[in-house]
Design brief:
The complex is a heterodimer. By secondary structure, chain A is of the alpha/beta class. Helix content of chain A is 38%, strand content 25%. The longest helix of chain A has 16 residues. The model of chain A has no long low-confidence stretch (mean pLDDT 90). The chains are: A alpha/beta, B mainly alpha. Chains A and B meet through helix 4, strand 9 and helix 6 of A and helix 4 and helix 8 of B.
């Protein structure tokens, strides 16, 4: 009798302690909630509607992922510079935050295959007389601090050896400064540029040219060592494309033909 | 829950760059103090002048500077004035914002110091044949600055820390700006922020100690 009680106790103890070995994927399924870091200052990827509800491509993408996992999605608004602290401190499970998959960052977090691709556009203040990317030489230009285009643009300004680069904390600040004439031009993703020019909140600006930067592939990210979850995310991105959901979301938020997420001649 | 492996080497390699930023930080803080003290003296004189308009300007300045966040003061200097076509560069906007804040606090500081100086001092000066301006400049002002000196070092430390708000107006050459940029490139947030915090601490500490040593040399008798 005593032995069976002991055995029962052992089984119970094993059952109770086993979640400690669970990985993030198990944790999310067990908790019933998927917490996504989403940037809500980056239309059409993420923004807020009239009722202050989060909307955008990234928001829908997070909802799709939660649905696939069979859990509820929780959108955690995260400005660009706070994406990593949010993940590291355990406030979010995954970043669905238009994060460029640079090698430098991959030393810190685990990146999936690309889930979206951006082209870069030059938006200028109409008074600046800038008509092309080369016209930006020697002018005051800016972009959102820490983004792919900000890093590329700052390097370009350094290469030109004249002009000034200013990083602002939010995309809204960049376009505010541009509209006020504090900046002559900015390079942003073409989606953001179109959305801000059409939005009418920032008068006196227009998209003038494409920027000759490489296509900016962005990835979902989570903790570096969460292989199980990363595997799941990679398959999820793959399925979104296969099922046509990627094209559907692209049409809904951006319009036109969705750019290819594949790089020719590369296995991944 | 804190899932992070520290790469201290990577952060330490960026140290020279961060120290360059620290120089800019100190430069902004010192300049903002010089401008702040000059403005604060002017505001104190405005208050003493008895003129309603000048007194009103001084009172408004102090009220706004002391009762609104420094972040807004700097933000307004850049984006607020920008709305009216007045364009201050991030560096200037940061300097103006902090100097504005400094002047507000220091003016109050000076007013307190002024109260500590008996009226008889100025009257004694007048009886020696000084004009009231001379009596203020030669007798009251030096004593006021002496009383206000150590409390003003607080403001200097605060000015150093306020420079970190420059990132909100596109400042990228000071310590906070450089740290933010290094962080964005590599995502090694915690190493860079920890390193920056240590540098800020050391600058603030050095300034406090230097001020104390200076006060000890100047004001002891």
């Amino acid at each position: 009798m005593k032995t069976s009680v002991l055995a029962f106790g052992l089984v119970a103890a094993t059952a109770l302690t086993s979640p400690a070995h669970a990985d993030k994927l198990d944790d999310i399924i067990a908790s019933g909630t998927l917490r996504c870091a989403v940037v809500l200052d980056f239309p059409p990827m993420g923004s807020r509607d009239e009722n202050n509800e989060p909307i955008g491509f990234d928001v829908d993408y997070c909802n799709d992922l939660a649905k696939a996992l069979g859990v509820t999605a929780e959108i955690v608004e995260t400005p660009f510079p706070e994406r990593i602290p949010a993940l590291m401190s355990g406030r979010v499970d995954v970043g669905v935050a238009s994060t460029s998959d640079t090698l430098e960052r991959a030393k810190t977090v685990g990146m999936t295959v690309p889930y979206f691709a951006f082209e870069m556009a030059v938006t200028a203040n109409e008074k600046s007389g800038i008509k092309s990317f080369e016209d930006m030489k020697g002018k005051v230009v800016g972009a959102t601090a820490g983004t792919y285009e900000a890093i590329a643009l700052e390097n370009q300004v350094k290469a030109w050896g004249e002009g000034e680069f200013r990083p602002y904390q939010t995309q809204a600040d960049v376009f505010l400064a541009l509209s006020q004439g504090q900046l002559d031009a900015t390079v942003s993703t073409s989606t953001v540029a179109q959305s801000n020019v059409k939005g009418g909140k920032f008068p006196g600006i227009s998209v003038v040219d494409k920027a000759p930067f490489d296509i900016d592939y962005v990835a979902l990210f989570t903790n570096r060592e969460e292989y199980g979850f990363l595997d799941y995310l990679n398959l999820f991105v793959n399925q979104q494309v296969r099922t046509g959901r990627y094209a559907e979301l692209y049409e809904k938020w951006v319009g036109g033909e969705a750019p290819s997420l594949a790089v020719n001649g590369v296995y991944r | 829950m804190f899932n992070y492996t520290f790469h201290w080497n990577q952060a330490l390699r960026a140290l020279p760059q961060m120290l360059d930023g620290a120089v800019v930080t100190l430069q902004v803080a010192v300049l903002s103090m010089v401008i702040g003290v000059a403005c604060a003296i002017a505001l104190t004189v405005f208050r003493l002048s008895g003129s309603r308009i000048l007194g009103g300007i001084a009172a408004t300045w102090v009220e706004v500077a002391r009762n609104t966040p420094a972040l807004f003061q700097i933000y307004m200097a850049h984006f607020g004035l920008g709305n009216f076509g007045i364009h201050l560069s991030p560096y200037t906007a940061l300097l103006v914002g902090i100097a504005f804040n400094n002047a507000g606090y220091l003016a109050e500081n000076f007013r307190g110091a002024l109260k500590a100086i008996p009226d008889t001092q100025a009257r004694a000066g007048r009886s020696l044949g000084m004009t009231s301006l001379q009596a203020f400049r030669l007798i009251v002002l030096p004593q006021m600055l002496r009383v206000a000196f150590l409390p003003a070092t607080n403001q200097m430390v605060w000015a150093i820390l306020m420079t970190s708000l420059g990132v909100t107006v596109g400042m990228n050459t000071d310590l906070a700006g450089i740290t933010q940029e290094l962080n964005a490139r590599s995502f090694r947030t915690f190493e860079f922020f920890a390193l920056a915090a240590v540098i800020y601490y050391l600058i603030a500490k050095a300034v406090t100690l230097a001020a104390r040593a200076f006060a000890w040399r100047m004001f002891r008798y």
